[in-house]
Amino acid sequence: MAAIDHGADAVYIGASRFGARAAAGNSVEDIISLTAYAHRFAAKVYVTVNTIVYEDELEDTRQLIWQLYRAGVDAILIQDMGLLKMQLPRIALHASTQTDNRTVQKVGWLSDLGFERVVLARELSVREIAHIHKQRPEVELEVFVHGALCVSYSGQCYASQHCFARSANRGECAQFCRMKFDLVDADGHVVERERYLLSMKDLCQIDHLEELAAAGASSFKIEGRLKDVAYVKNVVAAYSRQLDNIIRKYPDRYRRASLGRMEYNFEPDLRKTFNRGYTNYFAAGRQAGIASFDTPKAMGESVGRVKEIRGNSFTVAGTATFANGDGLCFVNARHELQGFRVNRVDGNRLFPLSMPQGLKPGTPLHRNNDEAFAKIMARQTAVRKIPVKMTLQPTVDGIRLKMSLLDFPTSSGSSSKTNLYEGMKVCERICSHQEAQKPQRENIIKQLTKLGNTPYLCQEVELESGIDHLFIPSSLLADLRRGVTEQPIFPAPTLSDTPREAPTFAATSSLAWTPEYRRHPYLYNISNHLSKTFYQEQGLTTATADAFEVSASRPTRPLLMQCRHCIKFSLGYCERHGGKKPTWREPLYLRLADGHRFRLDFNCAECQMNLYAE
Asked: What is the full DSSP assignment across 91-152?
């Protein structure tokens, strides 16, 4: 609800089960409440049913999807293709990023199967997104623009399942990529010791929204796994403002997909909420600085450097202001993040609760908890209202009130879905026309603009045909006002018990979207008989292979990750991109503290790093 209040045109949310965030489930009852709230602003609710589904869960999954349909949700995001063999309701389908959507061929295949929208892999560049849109312009493309990054292509990571029996494809990721590794060469020499070599910074594309929109992205997605409400408020407000700026720049090209204008009681600042440092990832192609090798934790905003240490306090060189309770951190000489709490502030002199070891003059400082900003975010920080015009006019036997939505989407720059909105609400009452003994205009305006807890804000009142000379009781004006404001913006959906039609896409044998699918057929994530039947009908001869999670005969050294992130490049040793010549001998291995090793395979032709179990 906070996301809606702060400008989201849609929210995606997990249900009680079968979402890719197992620890972030929500009841159908809560989703019903959210849907009713979102639809007040013509905003959408998308529910994630995007795990692979085991055999004994198929019927529960089908029943859940029907419950969500009857709850009024606008679409479901799915991963398991077996669901397409079920008798599903007539609800829009979005292909989750868990379906590994990184090629034109994959996106086109999903569209032919009936998916209205495809959530693209986070790793794609603006140029790659534009290419997909050009080839398949009928498909709605959704792109991640902010939040945590998985180092592996989504849906293709089996490290957590292999090491901890917790499947990322079941929403139970154990954060293998946030662990500390040694990098070891073929001769056993340690190249890097105890570094977070698979830990990505957080994605931030706020300065690239215009490019992404021009490339064909129609939905910008903010990742918010287990984040608090302050994170939601701050990040959504920042992106909503930026999107409004783009629309003002190109009013004939774009429009918002929902209604309402936001008034914020704070200044959004992406540096203030949880982040591991920001990167635009591969938006402009491969670049340095996308990883956070020193820590997987939030570092927050840079606030200066230690200037002088004296006793139990120190001074900070910089322009930041501090407050009692601020959380600060720094990277120590052992490449470890060390944090501490500020107990007292005297100008730029800070008194920690306990003086941290390893703090030296010149040490860069970051703030990962801003106490003053947290207090601001704990209050009401935004109000969302739909601007309207009230028009009061006499009829032959009474009075009519019309309420028009002032930011109602017009045909200019809009999609064919504009007709989902009803731009005008009308209420009529029968009454006698009685001349007033004193002017009525002021009272009429006063009564019609009392919109209180409704989602509307009256910005204009028009009184037609001398109606302000008639006596109209305040109770009648209030009744007319309620009559228009209580009408839903969305027309009530017509629900059907008739299931959606099964996909009729022609069988094909060319579903190996990358070479890895041919060599490792468990990448299709087939975990139930419906999924197996689906792929066999599509002509996939290798569809007999079970998903990694349910396979009784896993390969000895399975492929666990496919990554566009390349450790060699990040360390400056990619000769194809002008790096230094390596001093080690390959293959390279990542080694955990318990001794487990994982071989790295560098497919330089595809600019991809694969990780195998040893």
From this structure: -EEEE-GGG---SHHHHHHHHHTT-SEEE--TT--HHHHHHHHHH-TTSEEEEEEEE---SS
